[in-house]
């Protein structure tokens, strides 16, 4: 027979797991180890590690689970970067939606800006950063606006400046990474997510939408959304969503969360549900109204208030939960592990000289 294999240790969960014993105030009644547990079934002493005497620490809590708390503290101190790009032709409510998402004026190029709304001659790229703090966690949010996209008569290759910007941020990161004297923490300006605004035409995607998403989905996480969905009836909206999904599939456009990057079955099931509900049909507003004695963000119409966060009115809440509450970290990871990695490998292959 081969040597005996030591099975992984099974340690019982402590009855009161909060702190390692030496931190807790001494209590006269504190028992040594997990007493009263019926002889510690499944708990073995590790040979060679046992002390004589008390020995109770070996039977008890190690504290591996405090890693989560340690990570939390570090993350809270360091804060994190999140960079979101908004693309779509002017007037689709991009600035309004981002302000709605982050409940503050994080995007400054709303249509009211500077009086008359001037359409730039080419696609401009404007990044504005804000530090948002909630529950002691600091997020440096950068909103990258792309005014002028799709506004020209000839929109040929109008995604070039956008793709150039995205690649430039990868290049910046790569340069920092290969530096001999590296920064302890490399500032992350890479675009983690690109919200692509689809016009609520009720027809189909425009050629430009298809071209843009086709080109850019290889380098960045694209999340398509249907803008100003309050302009469609529920039936029209569902039909349009269905058609857009079909078209995206026909043209082989991989939007986020991409099938191929699902981690496991649980992840796949969760993401399948999201993919089936996409593209989210959203409504944005930064104005509050009183509805049933509650203040809500909404758009007041002659026949009532469209409540932005009411799931019966639009899918803003779904988008917000998905983007911020469930997938923010994953967006960052896919950016780093897939998109940036692809860029990096290609760049180092082309010429090792960065
Ligand atoms: P941007 O050019 O894409 O940044 O669009 P803006 O956010 O500046 O919005 C353009 C106009 O559309 C403004 O008058 C907004 O009040 C309005 N708007 C924004 N979001 C919505 C929406 O969800 N539904 C409707 N009906 N109008 C919207
Ligand atoms: Mg704008």
Helix content: 25-40%
Portion in beta strands: 15-25%
**Which structural class do you get from the secondary structure elements?**
alpha/beta
Tell me which ligands are bound.
guanosine-5'-diphosphate, magnesium ion
Q: What's the helix count?
A: 9
Estimate the mean pLDDT confidence.
83
Largest beta sheet, briefly? 6 strands, mixed
Q: How many strands in all? A: 9
Pfam family, one: Septin
Domain Septin-type G: 78-350
InterPro entries: G_SEPTIN_dom (IPR030379), P-loop_NTPase (IPR027417), Septin (IPR016491)
Protein name: Neuronal-specific septin-3 isoform X2
Summed up:
With 354 residues, the chain is α/β, with parallel strands linked by helices.
What this model shows, in words?
With 354 residues, the protein is α/β, with parallel strands linked by helices. It contains nine helices and nine strands. It has helices at residues 56-59, 66-78, 94-102, 160-178, 207-216, 234-250, 265-277, 316-326, 328-350, and strands spanning 80-87, 126-134, 137-145, 193-198, 222-226, 280-281, 288-291, 294-301, 304-307. The strands form two sheets. Strands 2-3-1-4-5-6 form a six-stranded mixed β-sheet, sandwiched between helices. The longest helix is centred in the last third of the chain and has 23 residues, at 328-350. It is globular, with a radius of gyration of 26 Å. Residues 16-55 and 109-116 have low confidence and may be disordered. Guanosine-5'-diphosphate binds at residues 90-96, 110-111, 228, 230-231, 283-284, 299.
């Amino acid at each position: 027979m081969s040597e005996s294999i030591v099975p992984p240790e099974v340690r019982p969960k402590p009855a009161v797991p909060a702190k390692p014993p030496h931190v807790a105030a001494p209590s006269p009644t504190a028992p040594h180890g997990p007493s009263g547990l019926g002889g510690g079934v499944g708990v073995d002493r590790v040979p060679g590690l046992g002390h004589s005497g008390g020995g109770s620490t070996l039977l008890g809590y190690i504290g591996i689970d405090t890693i989560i708390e340690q990570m939390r503290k570090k993350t809270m101190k360091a804060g994190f970067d999140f960079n979101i790009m908004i693309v779509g032709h002017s007037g689709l409510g991009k600035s309004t939606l981002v302000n709605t998402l982050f409940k503050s004026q994080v995007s400054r190029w709303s249509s009211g800006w500077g009086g008359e709304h001037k359409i730039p001659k080419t696609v401009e790229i404007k990044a504005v950063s804000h530090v948002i703090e909630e529950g002691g966690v600091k997020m440096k949010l950068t909103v990258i606006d792309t005014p002028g996209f799709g506004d020209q008569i000839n929109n040929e290759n109008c995604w070039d400046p956008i793709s150039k910007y995205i690649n430039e941020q990868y290049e910046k990161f790569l340069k920092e990474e290969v530096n001999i004297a590296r920064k302890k923490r490399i500032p992350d300006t890479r675009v983690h997510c690109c919200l692509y605004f689809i016009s609520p035409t009720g027809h189909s995607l425009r050629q430009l939408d298809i071209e843009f998403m086709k080109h850019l989905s290889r380098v960045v996480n694209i999340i398509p959304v249907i803008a100003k969905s309050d302009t469609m009836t529920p039936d029209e909206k569902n039909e349009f969503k269905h058609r857009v999904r079909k078209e995206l599939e026909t043209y082989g456009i991989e939007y986020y969360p991409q099938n191929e990057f699902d981690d496991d079955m649980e992840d796949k099931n969760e993401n399948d549900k999201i993919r089936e509900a996409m593209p989210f049909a959203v409504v944005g507003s930064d104005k509050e109204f009183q509805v049933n004695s509650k203040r809500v963000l909404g758009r007041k119409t002659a026949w009532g208030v469209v409540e932005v966060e009411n799931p019966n009115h639009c899918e803003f809440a779904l988008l917000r939960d998905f983007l911020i509450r469930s997938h923010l970290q994953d967006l960052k990871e896919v950016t780093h592990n897939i998109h940036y990695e692809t860029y990096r490998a290609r760049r180092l292959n082309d010429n090792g000289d960065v």
